[in-house]
Amino acid sequence: MEGSYRFKAVATLTILLQFTTCMNPSCSAAEANPSETNTQFIKKSCRATTYPRLCISSLSTYASKIQSSSKILADTALSMSLETARSAFTEVTKLSKIHGLQPAEAAAMRDCVELVGDSVDEIQRSLKEMEQPGGGGLNFVSLMNDVETWVSAALTDDDTCMDAFAGHATDGKVHRMVRRRILHVAQMTSNALALINIYASTKTALS
């Protein structure tokens, strides 16, 4: 009888200890799936972008690297924008050399090659600036203003490239291919700019 009483007492004490331990806020955090937490951070951040689905699908692969860092999130988005712009520049350059283009189409293609090339340079410059030591105060504000200006300029170049085909008899296969690629670059760059703005505003608020 006494042994049965001791067993029940130990069992009750064990349950109470488990309950008391999980009253600690860190208990639920420890049991949470880190990968799921990181993905949720990306999804929440991407809601502020113009193309959230593209934002989530392109960045979720890097959730373990990004974790919950708005800085790494912005860096990763900008790096992907650069990769997309470089790929588009290569393709547009090849398409511009196709024989048999109409004069208006050939002129638009030349403009696009130059504009997308400028876009690549501006995104590269922004990425290098983002790699500078964070710091705070006026130096950080000035740095982020430069980054936002260059990324905005890259986005304008992408839009101007697509506009170069407007108003001309250029509604052919090449036009559609170029527009599709540049539109993707513009969407990636737009998302990167939104995430850079989030990082800049968050960092400034904490300074």
What descriptive keywords fit this protein?
207 residues, mainly alpha, 9 helices
What is this structure, in a nutshell?
With 207 residues, the chain is mainly α. The protein is built from 9 helices and no strands.
Structure description:
This protein is an all-alpha fold and 207 residues long. 81% of the residues lie in helices and 0% in strands. It has helices at residues 2-21, 25-31, 34-46, 52-59, 63-66, 70-96, 103-130, 137-163, 173-206. α6 (70-96) runs antiparallel to α9. Residues 5-17 and 19-31 have low confidence and may be disordered.
The gross shape turns out to be: elongated
Mean pLDDT reading: 83
Radius of gyration: 26 Å
Stretches with pLDDT under 50, minimum 5 residues? 5-17, 19-31
SSE order: HHHHHHHHH
How would the blueprint of this fold be written?
Blueprint (H helix, E strand, L loop, with lengths): L1 H20 L3 H7 L2 H13 L5 H8 L3 H4 L3 H27 L6 H28 L6 H27 L9 H34 L1
